[in-house]
Amino acid sequence: MEKVKVEICCGTACYLLGSAKIMDIESALPEALRGRVEIEARPCLNLCERENLGGAPYVRINETEIVAKATLEGVMKRVTELLEGVS
Length: 87
Ligand code: FES
What we know:
Layout: E1 4-9, H1 12-22, H2 25-28, H3 31-34, E2 37-42, E3 59-61, E4 65-67, H4 72-83
Bound molecules: FE2/S2 (inorganic) cluster.
């Protein structure tokens, strides 16, 4: 995959539950992969209402894949898999 889009929810619930740490993903990735990740901070993705905040913080990858209870490590792992062609 050429490039991976990562939208990090920075709405109140997700922010309070740790999404700010996930914003460090670009510097945490190996240098060879850094330019291939497009990172966007987003306002509430309207996912927190569904599970009564249980799944926050949320990250959306490539417009369709939702990661609940996202962590920097988990998102990095998934992004690396996508960039290296492991699905
Ligand atoms: S605050 Fe993140 S989905 Fe609502």
